[in-house]
Design goal:
mainly alpha; about 0% strand; membrane; Keratinocyte-associated protein 2; KRTCAP2; transmembrane helix
Length: about 120
């Protein structure tokens, strides 16, 4: 597992690269129905990267991560999606909800493994 500092740097770099690629190809993403859905999917990846960045920053700062990080990351990704196409906003929101559910499920599995290890010893 990556350290919070390096994970924060990698997520910010990926966020910047994907954001610039979305802005470069926003005409392509708005050209057809399928591409608007793909644009929403890519904007939801921005949500995931921004959530990773904020969570790692808060962990390094000693603060507790909560729903504020989720809302901020969602607002940023929806604003980026709105620069591409209106349908991208909706698909970005839906894909982000699925990603958030999956991240929560993975975190729950990791947390339960850590609890079971702590009980054994």
């Amino acid at each position: 597992m990556a350290a919070p500092g390096s994970s924060m740097i990698y997520s910010s770099l990926l966020f910047t690269v994907i954001l610039s690629l979305i802005q470069m190809y926003k005409v392509k993403f708005a050209s057809s129905e399928l591409m608007t859905i793909v644009g929403g999917l890519i904007c939801s990846l921005l949500f995931l990267l921004m959530l990773t960045f904020i969570g790692n920053y808060q962990e390094l700062s000693g603060m507790k991560t909560g729903w504020g990080a989720v809302i901020l990351a969602e607002i940023v990704s929806l604003i980026v999606a709105s620069t591409v196409h209106r349908v991208c906003i909706t698909t970005c929101f839906l894909f982000s909800a699925v990603f958030l559910y999956e991240v929560d499920k993975i975190y729950g599995m990791i947390l339960s493994k850590n609890d079971s290890k702590a009980r054994r010893y």
